[in-house]
Design brief:
Layout (H helix, E strand, L loop, with lengths): L3 E6 L3 H12 L8 E6 L36 H8 L12 H17 L7 E5 L3 E6 L6 E5 L4 E4 L1 E4 L35
Parallel strand pairs: 1-2, 1-7, 2-3
Antiparallel strand pairs: 4-5, 5-6
Helix pairs in contact: 1-3
């Protein structure tokens, strides 16, 4: 049987968790495949939402509900205990802590083939083009370094895009020095 190829464009939370869950499927639920995780950031896993460099940025869900594995609801809480991570304030942990958790989980999948035969590879590049092939059943994902990944399946896990400006008629305020439309962008933020 020929191995299939799944390319996941975006290695933040959604893309990384998809790769992680594929690696955990039983052999009966899966066909032999290679998973390509395309993520240009320095590490896959945390994405934008969980890379905040501020420990006071807390998760909006209690720790006991944030396991990556539904069948192991205490997985994240146990990880916190084992790694001696900072205590969670009223069980709301920092986004940084959760980002480290996600990063560790996906790094384990990337280090060796899964027991079900899935091989997962991280491409530390941006995807520049996705071209559906004439057969209509496969595609080629072209990376910024020119690498082409032939894929039977492509998943777009692109995250959240910046919000639209609040007013659409008079957009002069966009150029005002105190306007900061994206709270995650670097630069001055005036309240």
């Amino acid at each position: 049987m020929q191995r299939k190829s799944i390319t996941i464009v975006g290695g933040g939370f959604s893309g990384s968790m998809l790769a992680l869950q594929l690696a955990r499927l039983s052999n009966q639920e899966l066909f032999a495949c290679d998973v390509h995780l395309v993520e240009p950031r320095p590490v896959p896993g945390p994405g934008l939402a969980y890379t905040a460099h501020r420990p006071e940025y807390l998760l909006n869900v209690r720790s006991e509900y944030l396991s990556a594995f539904p069948e192991q609801p205490d997985h994240f809480v146990n990880w916190l205990r084992v790694t001696h991570s900072e205590p969670c304030h009223f069980s709301f942990c920092s986004r940084q802590n959760y980002g480290r958790y996600l990063q560790q989980l996906i790094s384990q999948v990337l280090e060796w083939p899964s027991s079900n035969g899935i091989r997962c590879q991280w491409h530390n590049q941006a995807a520049k083009e996705i071209r559906v092939l004439p057969d209509g059943r496969s595609a080629v994902v072209k990376l910024s370094n020119g690498t082409e990944i032939h894929s039977d399946y492509v998943v777009l896990a692109l995250g959240n895009f910046p919000p639209l400006p609040p007013a659409r008629h008079d957009l002069r305020y966009l150029n005002h020095p105190t306007y900061h439309g994206n709270p995650w962008a670097r630069g001055p933020c005036v309240a």
